[in-house]
Amino acid sequence: MARTIKDGLVKDPVQFSIGKKILMLSVAAMIPFLILSVVLLLSMTRYSRTYGELVSNMTIANNYNLNFKEEMDESLYKLVVGYVDYEHIHEDGTLKDPYELIGELRGDFERLVDITTEPESRTWLESLIRNIETLEKRVNDILENIRIGGKYDKNIEELDNNIYILTELIQENIQYYIYYQTKSIEAVTDDLQHQIGSFIVICGLLVVILVAFTIAMTFVVTGGILHPVKILNDATKKIGSGDFAARAMVSSGDEIESLARSFNDMAEKMQALLNKTKEDERRMRWLDLRLLQEQINPHFLYNTLDTIVWLIEGNQEDEAVDMVVALSDFFRLVLSKGRELISLREEKEHINSYLGIQAVRYRDILEYEIRIDPSLYDYQILKLTLQPLVENALYHGIKYKRARGYIHVTGTREGDDLRLEVCDNGVGMEPRDLEQLRRDIRRPCSETDKGFGLANVNERIRIHFGPEYGMKIWSEKGKGTTVELTIPAIKKESGGEEREKG
User: Fold this and answer.
1) What is the SS3 assignment for 13?
2) Do residues 489 and 418 make contact, with C-beta atoms less than 8 angstroms apart?
3) What stretch of H or E contains 424?
4) Other CB atoms closer than 10 Å to residue 389's CB: what's the count?
5) Quick one: DSSP state of residue 480?
6) pLDDT tens string 35-69
7) I want to staple 252 with a disulfide (CB 3.0 to 4.6 A). Which of 61, 228, 363, 434 is the partner?
8) Chain-centre distance of CA 248, in angstroms?
9) Model confidence at 495, in pLDDT bands (50, 70, 90)?
10) Could you write out the three-class secondary structure of 80-97?
11) What φ, ψ does residue 254 adopt, rounded to 5°?
């Protein structure tokens, strides 16, 4: 099937996608349920709102049913007997202002009158409002008598014949209101149950019809899907067994054809990636071998052995023994039991052995210092990473200075990375030579004529850790050279290597 091109991108034509087929089936099956669900949702919403209003109204009424009569009777009685005067009633935590009680009661139940539609409940609410008005008048009379004074008996009579009777009537009004509101809740619940029962019956019938329809449509839809899926599955198994030449030839005109084409592209990329990985591994082996050959340099070995002989002849047996031990440590760490990664501690010991050997030969011109924080010793580094840099500093920097020089090796951690520096105060380089060296270390090691050791280190780091890591060089003629390496901070853990985040 032809592929269309638009805006520079290749697009796969899909005549009748799987999504459309499934969508049509889903829409046909879901529309009746959707309609029923909307109807049920609206009914439930209406029920929930009505039920919530009824419960809220009953909660308000029940609160007054429990507390109003007792609080009103007690407060007025204690005002009449002189237990407290009206101006200081708020200071007594057990009593309440009768006018505040009446105001709260009137406000809440007038609001209930406005929202109540059930006739019996509304009748009792209206009776309650009238009793509240009467109660307020009687409270006015009692408080006026208290203000005038000398009418204790009359106030007691008012309490017995009016106040207690009115609060009793108000409580009775509230109880009847709660009773009829409860009846309303029962009616609402019965209506909801009836609607749910009807909904279940209709849904049962629809399910039977839709199951039969869905089964028929499923055979039609899956018939056009399963065959190309089987082709794609067979090709996947071949890829899984290592046959990267396998391809899925599908022409179904839907997403499976597009998926098969993407699968084929992926298989091609996997083959290319596998070839690249093999090539990278081959290059790493070659680079390791070349660098190992550089380290087992016959001239270095001859010179070191000559120095040992010279020390022995000069009766400096202890220095000769130290040099033999350093040489042994040097070659032991060069081999590293075939490991590609070693700890920073081992690499430090390696350059320490190397510089210790060279310090005997070049004792008049060489000083060195290695300052790497012990907390970094367990981090991993490619073997033979720092030693070529130190060797380069000695032979191309310090040796031609014709004066005493130093090599300074440092290691620090910055975030998720390690930064390692080798600095010398040797002869340095001209800007032109520095730029040439920077270009050389960015090229493949096999194409580099000069600076092989530096290029080798840089290429191995970039292959192993990625192109964002590697080497930087700064140099100034007559002042020295600094080489900086950046590698990821990786620790050797019990379960294998893992990146330690800062």
Assistant:
1) coil
2) yes
3) strand 417-424
4) 26
5) E
6) 767 766 777 777 677 767 767 777 776 767 667 77
7) 228
8) 37
9) very low
10) HCCCCCHHHHHHCCCCCC
11) -130, -165
CA dihedral 134, 138, 141, 147 (to 10 degrees): -130
Q: Which residues pair with 422 in a beta bridge?
A: 409, 483
* The token pair that represents 490 in the structure block: 């990786």
**What is the token pair recorded at 75?**
């407060």
Per-residue pLDDT band at 488 (split at 50, 70, 90): very high
Q: Are 138 and 158 in contact (CB under 8 A)?
A: yes
| Adjacent-strand bridge partners of 10 | 5
Please, are residues 195 and 40 in contact by the beta-carbon 8 Å criterion? Answer: yes
Taking only the tens place, the pLDDT of each residue in 202-222 is 777 777 777 777 777 777 667
Which residues, at least 6 apart from 407, have a Cβ–Cβ distance to it below 8 Å? 355, 366, 367, 368, 369, 390, 393, 394, 397, 398, 422, 423, 424
Q: Supply 397's token pair.
A: 């920097």
If you compute the radius of gyration of the chain from its CA atoms, what whole number of angstroms results? 48
User: What global pTM score does this model have?
Assistant: 0.45
Nearest to 499 by CA among 468, 471, 465: 465
As a whole number of angstroms, the distance between CA 184 and CA 199 comes to 23
DSSP-derived 3-state class of residue 108: helix
The per-residue pLDDT for 446 is: 60
**How far apart are alpha carbons 481 and 422 in whole angstroms?**
8
The three-state (H, E, C) secondary structure of 165-191, written as one string = HHHHHHHHHHHHHHHHHHHHHHHHHHH
Contact 125, 177 (CB under 8 A): yes
The tokens for 306 are 């000559």
**Which residue type is seen at 496?**
G
Alpha-carbon distances, residue 372 vs 39, 80, 215, 346, 419 (angstroms): 75, 93, 72, 12, 10
Q: Using the structure block, give the residue that is written with the tokens 């889903």.
A: 26
Q: How far apart are CA 61 and CA 55, in angstroms?
A: 10
Residue 156 and residue 93 in contact, taking contact as beta carbons nearer than 8 Å: no
Residue pair 384/334 in contact (Cβ under 8 Å)? The answer is yes
* Inter-CA distances, 405 with 191, 363, 387, 393, Å: 100, 10, 18, 10
List the structure tokens of 173: 């009004």
Mark 468-483 as b/e (b = at least 16 C-beta within 10 Å).
ebbbebebeeeebbbb
Q: What is the DSSP string of 286-323?
A: HHHHHHHHHHS-HHHHHHHHHHHHHHHHTT-HHHHHHH
Question: In 3D, which of 475, 453, 472, 456 has the Cα closest to residue 392?
Answer: 453
Asked if 395 contacts 378 with a C-beta cutoff of 8 angstroms, the reply is no
Q: From residue 469, how far is each of 184, 367, 488 by CA, in Å?
A: 77, 30, 8
What type of residue is 497? E
User: Which tokens sit at 245?
Assistant: 């030449």
Q: Using the structure block, give the residue that is written with the tokens 């056009």.
A: 224
**Can you say how many angstroms the Cα of residue 66 is from the centroid of all Cα atoms in its chain?**
53
Spatial separation of the C-alpha atoms in residues 95 and 428, rounded to whole Å: 97
CB of 419 within 8 A of CB of 485? yes
